[in-house]
């Protein structure tokens, strides 16, 4: 059971403090619970003398008995690491039937919050230019349900290209900072690897030839094989971007568990946000 605090009246005298001590002791003996004597003010000299004479410690001070956030039930948080892909956050929201999650760093500390609306907006705004993002290759593999055939670089940042034209025109769009999505067109695959692009994604689960794999190893080009067709791969890859690029991290209103309910209520009525994170020791412990 939780702690039960036995409290006398404010500005306590000897009767008030000794009654709390005696009743807490009685409850412990009868009910075997965690009953703790407390006080709502400083003891006077008479009370100090009595407690000192009987070698009884001064009860713990409770400054007020107003209801705090810690005293009520609120939604326990679902936390997502900041490098997780958008696709994982979406799946987590659908699984838990929620519209907002907290974002945490490697130590579990709160760094931001992201909503379903934030994800929808980002999905529409992100285009074929990934140069403003640093995307872990593992995110791309996870999002596209792919298989890593060969990995030389753990991150991608650059432009996306799709092999929907002849090889000469494709080559014009390639650089070392390119991620190319292509089907089983070996001529394009070879040309792209020779240009030392960052990553080659082969669609349709087609087998990558040993000769192409060897060429990729020599040129330090990532190769990922995915089951999707090219159109679906292009549509889904934007969801590999880490969620910390999408989250809100500034201008947030947060609370601690020690804050009074009345104070929290006033703030919530003033700002009228959908959710307010509850933070304790830098870690998210709930959502209001």
Q: Which features would summarize this protein structure in a list?
A:
288 residues, alpha/beta, CBS-domain, Udp-n-acetylmuramoylalanyl-d-glutamate--2,6- Diaminopimelate Ligase, Chain: A, domain 1, 5-stranded mixed β-sheet, elongated
Structure characterization notes:
It is a single chain. The chain has 288 residues and is of the alpha/beta class. The protein has 3 domains: 62 residues, no CATH class; 97 residues, CBS-domain (Roll); 114 residues, HprK N-terminal domain-like (Udp-n-acetylmuramoylalanyl-d-glutamate--2,6- Diaminopimelate Ligase, Chain: A, domain 1, 3-Layer(aba) Sandwich), CATH 3.40.1390. Helix content is 34%, strand content 22%. The strands form 5 sheets. The chain has a 5-stranded mixed beta sheet, with helices on both faces. Strands 1-2-3 form a 3-stranded parallel beta sheet. A 3-stranded mixed beta sheet has the order 4-5-6. Helix 3 links the parallel strand 4 and strand 5. Helix 7 runs parallel beside helix 8. The two termini are 25 Å apart.
How is this fold's topology laid out?
Blueprint: E1 4-10, H1 14-31, E2 35-40, H2 45-53, E3 60-61, E4 79-81, H3 86-96, E5 100-104, E6 110-115, H4 116-125, E7 135-136, H5 137-143, E8 147-150, E9 155-156, E10 159-162, H6 167-172, E11 178-182, H7 186-194, E12 199-202, H8 210-219, E13 222-225, H9 230-237, H10 261-271, E14 277-280, E15 283-287
Parallel strand pairs: 1-2, 2-3, 4-5, 10-11, 11-12, 12-13
Antiparallel strand pairs: 5-6, 7-9, 8-13, 14-15
Helix pairs in contact: 7-8
